[in-house]
Specification:
The chain has 315 residues and is α/β, with parallel strands linked by helices. The protein is built from eleven helices and 16 strands. The chain is globular and about 65 Å long. Bound molecules: flavin-adenine dinucleotide.
């Protein structure tokens, strides 16, 4: 057997790296804070779009090949990071880009307002474990803030759960020649274009309505600017999901190994998987920012090659 490698994160990038490394006879251990492997493929993308048993089978195949999975384990300075640093010859950070962008407006602290990933994770856990839903859209007026794929996943899930109404606040105007979403719902019936939330209005501590405004997006050589038009309106909202993108990895996972993401370097150059510590590597969304499954898999494979080279040179 060759050297020991710890991979933090069992999403597609971590799994792709694990497969190559275990095939080359390295001793691979994967850690995840979640109770099931798969990263966003398990707890982000809804079951109706991606069957969870396929992800579990993939993890089982890796286990059969010799990969060890340690789940339900949050890797940080306060937990197992020091142990991992001592016990392993190389560490690969494949921790994703889970740091969600928030909306800082009046009333954000009210009950009933959640990040998209909290909602999607809760729904998948409910489907897989039969656990009670913590966030249930049934008979509720649901508003999703954001117009991307994550927002669409929330729309489809809320419709399936039996929401009373589902509306999506999309800051951009309708795009010409846009691709149809994966789901059956009619985007134009759900979306309010060029609208954003400016205030959450409460009833006894829980969100009840959203005050929204019409916006114009100005794109020029100075960048992108959002101009509020002062054409306010109200919309019923018993449940709100914030789906306006991700800022990058949660710093704690990187800090656990005393490394930092150098955005100028890591996000721009798609061939850099190293960090300022010679035996700590980074790949997937943790390195490049929220992206696509195909890039995550590609990054995992490339990072595995870089780790192999590093470990071979130590022999
Ligand atoms: C809701 C949603 C829907 C998407 N839909 C699509 C789609 O349809 N098609 C597509 O191509 N892409 C989609 N994407 C993007 C795609 O899922 C990601 O690009 C991909 O999963 C990134 O893979 P990754 O391995 O880098 O990270 P992730 O899949 O994010 O996995 C990271 C893993 O690291 C674990 N982790 C993080 N920190 C720690 C820690 N400190 N200790 C232990 N474990 C830790 C997490 O629990 C997680 O399991 C979607 C993204 C989202 C958010």
């Amino acid at each position: 057997m060759k050297q020991k490698i710890a991979i933090i994160g069992t999403g597609p990038s971590g799994m792709a790296a694990a497969q190559i490394l275990v095939q080359e006879d390295y001793q691979v251990t994967m850690y995840d804070k979640a109770d099931r492997p798969g990263g966003i493929l398990m707890y982000g993308i809804p079951h109706m779009k991606l069957n969870k048993s396929n992800i579990l089978k993939k993890a089982e195949r890796l286990e059969d090949m010799g990969v060890k999975f340690i789940l339900d384990t949050y890797v940080s300075k306060d937990t197992v990071a020091d142990e991992i640093s001592k016990d392993f010859d190389a560490v690969l950070l494949a921790t994703g880009a889970e740091h969600a962008r928030d909306i800082s407006i009046d009333g954000r602290q009210l009950k009933g307002i959640h990040f998209a990933m909290e909602y999607l994770t809760d729904n998948t856990k409910h489907l897989l474990d039969g656990s009670k839903l913590d966030i249930d859209a049934k008979d509720k007026n649901v508003v999703i803030i954001g117009g991307g794929d994550t927002a669409n996943d929330c729309v489809a899930t809320a419709i399936l759960q039996g929401a009373k109404t589902v509306r999506q606040l999309e800051i951009n105007p309708p795009r010409e020649n846009r691709k149809k979403t994966y789901y059956d719902f009619n985007e134009d019936e759900v979306r309010l274009y060029q609208k954003t939330a400016v205030k959450f209005i409460e009833s006894e501590g829980t969100v009840q309505k959203i005050e929204m405004d019409h916006v114009e997006i100005i794109r020029d050589e100075n960048g992108t600017k959002v101009e509020f038009q002062d054409q306010k309106g109200l919309i019923d909202a018993d449940l709100v999901f914030v789906a306006i993108g991700f800022l990058g990895p949660i710093d704690e996972a990187l800090a656990a190994f005393d490394v930092k993401l150098d955005k100028a370097k890591h996000n721009r150059d798609t061939t850099i998987f190293t960090t300022e510590k010679e035996n700590v590597f980074i790949c997937g969304d943790a390195r490049r920012g929220q992206s696509l499954i195909k890039w995550a898999i590609g990054e995992g494979k490339m990072a595995a090659e870089v780790i192999k080279e590093y470990l071979a040179a130590l022999d």
